Amino acid sequence: MKVIVDFCLVPIGVGVSVSKYIAECEIILKDAGLKTQLHAYGTNIEGEWDDVFGAVKRCHERVHEMGAPRITTTLKVGTRTDRVQTMDDKVKSVQEKLLGV
Amino acid sequence: MKVIVDFCLVPIGVGVSVSKYIAECEIILKDAGLKTQLHAYGTNIEGEWDDVFGAVKRCHERVHEMGAPRITTTLKVGTRTDRVQTMDDKVKSVQEKLLGV
Amino acid sequence: MKVIVDFCLVPIGVGVSVSKYIAECEIILKDAGLKTQLHAYGTNIEGEWDDVFGAVKRCHERVHEMGAPRITTTLKVGTRTDRVQTMDDKVKSVQEKLLGV
Amino acid sequence: MKVIVDFCLVPIGVGVSVSKYIAECEIILKDAGLKTQLHAYGTNIEGEWDDVFGAVKRCHERVHEMGAPRITTTLKVGTRTDRVQTMDDKVKSVQEKLLGV
User: What is the pLDDT of residue A100?
Assistant: First the structure.
């Protein structure tokens, strides 16, 4: 089952600067061979369900190892059976409507 | 790794009434032996990471089988290494502050 | 426009214990006359759009005043025009399906 | 109070194709003079609290007018008092860590 996910991990108890933890997660996602797109409030991920959620679990494990005692993550998870749709397709579909295509 | 999750699955393309899909997910979560608490905008789940996410995957599979062509799910996922904390502990901790305990 | 919201505020940069900030938000929501239901990963709120979002803004302002330099909040926001539905209705609707009503 | 928001509106009861509703919201956000960035699972928005939430409310009103009987929206809402930070700053901060800057 293919899935498109929006992933936003927030380490708690390590101060206000969290970008080094997010960068570490980006590396884990890339190492898992997943297609990703970083944005200002999370990372879009595209892949097979088990690959994506395996990588998300490793992010939690790794961020705890880095010293964060507590983590809260927000995920949006999209699946569909009617057709194949990529992250690019989703953005393009809205942009075409805006251009009147 | 223990996890506390807030799970909100939304089937798309099956009309406005979605409670029968949510009820089916409640059964899947219970059958997985997970502790759950239904609320007005999702379900809190407590358990081991793999058990919880295995059940969430089965919910997506089952809701598609029931005829929903598209699903968008929102998850909040909390882990901590500093101490053990249950769903009840979290609510109690806030309520004690409110009571001035 | 009536709205049902799930509200989860996370102060960042104040350590791992956040319940006193959540308790303060509960008071703000109650003072705004909103119907609320605390759960293990947030608070359900029912009310008029402007009342609810005015209270959410005051929560951010107050938690900053209490010393949190950074806040990340997750909201789920539900509106419908086909019929009136309360938080209790939503839970009951799922529970009835589970009971085979 | 400046805010960075991640906004994901899902119309329910209008079938599986929702891009025309999202496109309409993009126009509303632009008309409000807000800085936005569309991604595969939502739209990042940067602006003053009242401007952003005023526009989000208009999106709900407009999508209902377009015929959607039910809407569920997910928002992530970030505020900070320790320093000014834009959407670009957030992405850059992670990218610099990845490049070892």
Answer: 85
